[in-house]
Structure formats: C-alpha cells, structure tokens
Write a structure and sequence with these properties.
It is a single chain. This protein has helices at 10-22, 28-31, 57-60, 113-124, 131-135, 146-165, and strands at 24-25, 39-41, 46-48, 55-56, 63-68, 81-85, 104-106, 170-172. By secondary structure, it is of the alpha+beta class. It has two domains: 1-87, Endonuclease/exonuclease/phosphatase (Deoxyribonuclease I, Chain A); 88-178, no CATH class. The strands form four sheets. It has a two-stranded antiparallel ribbon. Strands 2-3 form a two-stranded antiparallel ribbon. A two-stranded antiparallel sheet has the order 5-6. The protein is globular, with a radius of gyration of 21 Å. The relative contact order is 0.15.
Length: 178
C-alpha cells in the first residue's frame, strides 16, 4: 500500500483500523526516525514517506532504530526501509496450564536487582518521547495528544515489564503458605 500516515489519508484511515485490531504499530513511534522520504520522483523532485513497516506493540518497544537506505545504488523510485530490533535470546518462562490452575507471583526478594536496573536502562533508552508532547501544552479538558500520551505510557509500562521478566522469578503462590 502506498499512502502517507496522515489522519486525512483514506488508505491510512482504513489501515489504522486493521492495526488497532491486531495491535500493530510503526516502530518509529518508539525509537524515532530520521527518514525524510521513501519515495522520490526525480523528474519533479516530489517526495513523500509512503513505505512503512508495522510490528506488534511488544516488538516495537525493543526497536532501536528505524531508517531508510538512502546511500545505496538503487534503480527504483522507492527507498528500502529497515528497523534494528533488540531481541532477547533467552526463552520466557510460561507456567504450565494443566490440571489445577496454579497461581504465580513475582518474587522481588529473589530478584536480580542489578540486572533489572540494567534491563530497565536498556529498554527505556529505546523510547523516544514524541516531540509534540515536549513542545505543546494542553488543557486537561481539551487535548489532541491523548494518543501520543497513551502510546508513551504503554511503551514505558511495556519496557518495565520486559525488564522484570528475566530478573524477577515467578514462584508458585503455594510456596509462601505455611
């Protein structure tokens, strides 16, 4: 699909609905972007950003960089785009879902706090605060930036949750009973 991500663009409106249904976002919402254009018509020198990549919100939070390859030999009028993502190679612990349901809680007293702080720094440093939130003031009853505020909040919560997963063990709730 070729469209710009602008609220008045018909293609973007339709695609946004699909993205909401499947929790998809553009990675540059979390890591920023210095992409000036992805399409260039050399004869008129018109350009626009009409090529995009979308990923799940959980994957977008670990996006490190979103970019276009504009310094390569390219015989096409569209520039390729890329996204660097930090992935953890350790499997996540998922409690078994069989028989009687067990309840699990995080054991902060058993946590690797140094690793947690390190992970928190790593994940939070990938979040870019949308510039619009830094430059405009809103009245609490009328604000056009609620979507950006909510996305930033969700990015922070997701970063903290991901930081906790490998550092704070899950333990069966029955371990604590007398």
């Amino acid at each position: 699909m070729n469209f710009e991500c602008k609220k008045n663009d018909a293609g973007f409106k339709m695609f946004t609905s699909l993205c909401d249904d499947f929790s998809l976002v553009r990675p540059d919402k979390f890591c920023g972007s210095d992409i000036r254009y992805t399409y260039l018509q050399e004869t008129t020198n018109n350009n626009s950003v009409i090529d995009h990549s979308y990923v799940s919100k959980n994957l977008a939070i670990v996006a490190k960089q979103y970019f276009s390859f504009d310094n390569i030999v390219n015989f096409y009028d569209h520039l390729p785009i890329g996204c660097d993502i930090i992935l953890d190679d350790k499997p996540k612990f998922n409690p078994p879902a069989r028989g009687k349901q067990c309840r699990y809680k995080r054991r902060w007293d058993k946590a690797d706090i140094v690793k947690y702080y390190s992970n928190t720094y790593t994940f939070l440093s990938t979040i870019t605060v949308p510039y619009v939130l830094l430059q405009h003031k809103c009245n609490i009853s009328y604000c056009v930036h609620w979507d950006s505020i909510n996305e930033l909040y969700n990015a922070i919560v997701t970063a903290l949750s991901l930081s906790m997963e490998e550092c704070v063990p899950l333990c069966n709730e029955r371990m604590w009973s007398g």
